[in-house]
Amino acid sequence: MARRDAQDGEDGFGPAGLDGWRHRTLAVIGLGQIGGSLAAAARPLVARVIGIDRDPEAVEHALQAGRIDTGSADGFELLVEADAVAVAVPVGAIPDVLEAARPHLRPGVLVTDTGSVKEPVVDAARRLLPPGVAFAGGHPMAGTERWGPAAADPGLFRGRTWTLTPAPPWGEAAARPWIPLLEAVGARILVMDPEEHDRHVALTSHLPLLVAAALAGTARRGAAELPYLAQLVAGGFRDTTRVAGGHPALGRDMLRANWPRVAPWLDALREALDQLARAAARGDGEALYRYLDETRRFREAVLGAAGVTGAGGSTGGGANPVNDTSTAGHDIDGNGETHVRRHTHPHP
C-alpha cells in the first residue's frame, strides 16, 4: 500500500495538513519514552497537548519538562477536550485503555496507538471504540532499551520509520490526517496492512529481543565459572544484548501477541546457528568466511537503506544485497558443493 500525503483542503476531520493540527488538541495516553517523546515533539505543532498517565510522577515530570499543557493521573475525563488521541502504552494494556477511554471520546476524534503489534490492537479498536471515532494503528520504529518519562526525547523520531496501519471499517481516511503531524516530528511514514506489519516486525524487532535475552541469559549461566567475565565484556556483548535491557513488560507483551509469526523465524535462526556450529566444528574456514562475509554485506546494506548510523564498512558495490537473494541460504555444511537453498517463507 503506497503512502498518501495529506492534501490541501479538508482531510475528513477538518482542515488538512499541518495547519489543521495547529487548531487541534492532542491527548497522549502514556508518558513514557514513546508517549513523552511524541508529546514533546508535537507540542509546538498543535494547539494544546493533554497528558494522561496512571503514574502521577510521570504527569508531573511531563508538566515540569514543558511537554504537556495539562495532565491527569486520575482517569480519562480530559479526553473530552481532545481532537486526537495517541495511546502509547504496552500492547497488552491497550484494550483496557481503549475501554476506559471510550465514554470520553467525542464523535469525530482521531485515535492511534504506538504498539509494536498491530492486528490484535486493530481488533480491540473495532470492538471497543464507539461509532464516529476513527482509528488507525501506528508503530514508530524508534524505541530504545530505556523507558520511563526521563527517557523521552523530542528528537526520538527524527529519520525513523513510523508505520500507519489503516484497516476497515475506518480505512485510509483515518490514517491520512496523522501523516503531516508525524512527518513534522521527523518521522518517515510507511502505510501498510496490519498483518503485513506484524509479519515484518516478527523478524526485524521481536526475534532480536529473543536473541539478546538468550545471549544475556547464557552469559548469566557462564558467569559462575568465568570470574573475569565482567572485565572482558565490551562492545560486541553490549551491542548484541542491547534490547535485552528494555522493560520486561514491553517484551513480554509483544512476544505473546505476535508469537505465531515469530516462531518460524526462530526455527530459521536455530538452523543458521546449527550450520555455523557444524562448520566451526569441522574447521571449515572457507564456509565460515563465506557466510560471515555474505551476512556482513547484507547487514551493511539493510542498515544503510534504513538510515541507521554506524553500519560501517562498504557494501562493495554491485547488486544491492538487501534484495539480492542469489546467495541466500548458502549451504555451509561442507558437503562438497555450495548450493542455493531458499527458505520457505515462514508465513504463519
From TrEMBL:
Q: Residue spans with biased composition (Basic and acidic residues)? A: 330-339
Ranges of Gly residues compositional bias?
310-319
- Record InterPro entries: 6-PGluconate_DH-like_C_sf (IPR008927), NAD(P)-bd_dom_sf (IPR036291), PDH_C (IPR046825), PDH_N (IPR046826), Preph/Arog_dehydrog (IPR050812), Prephen_DH (IPR003099)
- Signal peptide: which range, if any? none
GO MF terms listed in the record are: NAD+ binding; prephenate dehydrogenase (NAD+) activity; prephenate dehydrogenase (NADP+) activity
Q: Where is this region: Disordered?
A: 310-348
Tell me the ranges covered by the Prephenate/arogenate dehydrogenase domain, including all copies. 24-310
Q: Which Gene3D superfamilies match?
A: 6-phosphogluconate dehydrogenase C-terminal like domain, NAD(P)-binding Rossmann-like Domain
What's the short name of a Pfam family annotated to this entry?
A: PDH_C
Give the record's pathway. Amino-acid biosynthesis
List keywords of the entry alphabetically: Oxidoreductase
- Which GO terms are recorded in the biological process aspect for this UniProt protein? tyrosine biosynthetic process
Q: Which family does it belong to?
A: Belongs to the prephenate/arogenate dehydrogenase family.
Which protein, by its recorded name, is this?
Prephenate dehydrogenase
Give the source species: Thermaerobacter marianensis (strain ATCC 700841 / DSM 12885 / JCM 10246 / 7p75a)
